[in-house]
Design goal:
There is one protein chain. With 290 residues, the protein is of the alpha/beta class. It has eleven helices and seven strands. The strands form two sheets. The chain has a five-stranded mixed β-sheet with strand order 1-4-5-6-7, sandwiched between helices. Helix 2 (31-41) packs across helix 4 (76-86), helix 5 (100-140) runs parallel beside helix 11 and helix 7 crosses helix 8.
Length: 290
């Protein structure tokens, strides 16, 4: 790889790392996204310049704020639109450039993409809601709480997660890579005095349930002592999926005890748990096991 290619790759990597850390502040960055951006905004921004990236980011944030009802707080949604245009997966142009078949296909793609965006927004809102309930319950039980490291900027019910969460993630007795994986668990509860993690919760969306199980397993096998509680919070419609995953021999035969809680159960019982709960085991009242 020549020097120019290396420079471009570095800018792309930095932009994508920033997006991973703060998806509501920084958009992802690659050639197709820049091409789509230039097409829509009649611009000539170039890949491989930090200054250009910041200008692109400014325009994206401004545009996203204007059309937030159709898009998402996560800048990956609008960047995904640029990507589809820039990679020529979506046709953009005036009607005179499209024959009848192309126009019908284009309109179907638009309708499909709008539905996908709306579904993603609903899904993300439900995910944030469940995280909020878990943070609220953990706080009511006297624990320090924190969402996933890339979710601290989120909020629900006018409550910013950063205001509910502990200021600093506790140091864990494990290697850096494993610690970074543990930090991505959706909600963690820790004892105030010892800073030891006592509860771990993964909230499911349309992603793989097995990947959530692996994150919880990393915590259990690296720093667990058998006193922690582990839960997967799932939409009611995915109960069969989580049962199937928890029946995997490698999970079922391990000493790790993972239970699951339905969205509807957590939503309807949150206030009662906050009021009457006394410790981490209160979640057993609404949890299910295989």
């Amino acid at each position: 790889m020549n020097n120019f290619s290396q420079i471009i790759q570095q800018y792309k990597n930095v932009g994508n790392i920033l997006y991973f850390l703060q998806p509501t502040w920084f958009p992802p960055f690659n050639t197709a996204i820049v091409n789509g951006f230039n097409f829509l905004f009649k611009d000539k921004k170039k890949l491989g310049s930090w200054t250009e990236y910041l200008k692109i980011r400014e325009t994206i944030i401004e545009t996203n704020n204007k059309h937030k009802a159709e898009l998402s707080n996560d800048l990956g949604a609008i960047a995904g639109l640029f990507f589809e245009i820039g990679s020529k997966k979506m046709l953009i142009g005036n009607d005179e450039y499209l024959n009848k078949g192309e126009r019908i296909k284009f309109e179907k793609n638009i309708i499909k993409r709008q539905k996908e965006i709306q579904d993603e927004k609903v899904e993300e809102n439900h995910h944030s809601e469940m995280q909020y309930h878990l943070l609220k319950i953990g706080t009511s039980q006297g624990f320090d709480v924190t969402p996933a490291s890339n979710d601290k900027s989120k909020s629900f019910n006018n409550q910013k997660f950063s205001f509910i969460s502990m200021d600093k993630f506790p140091e864990l007795a494990t290697d850096k890579d494993t610690q970074n994986t543990i930090k991505l668990i959706d909600v963690l509860w820790s004892q105030k005095e010892t800073k030891k993690i006592v509860g771990a919760f993964e909230v499911e969306k349309s992603t793989s349930i097995y990947s959530s199980i692996l994150r919880l397993s990393d915590l259990y096998y690296s720093i667990g002592n058998g006193e922690e509680v582990f839960y997967i919070i799932i939409p009611d419609s995915r109960e069969k999926d989580v049962i199937h995953q928890l029946h995997r021999p490698v999970i079922k035969n391990s000493k790790m005890n993972i239970k699951y809680i339905l969205f509807s159960e957590l939503r309807s019982n949150c206030d009662a748990i906050c009021k009457f709960g006394t410790d981490k085991l209160i979640m057993e009242k609404i949890a299910k096991s295989i």
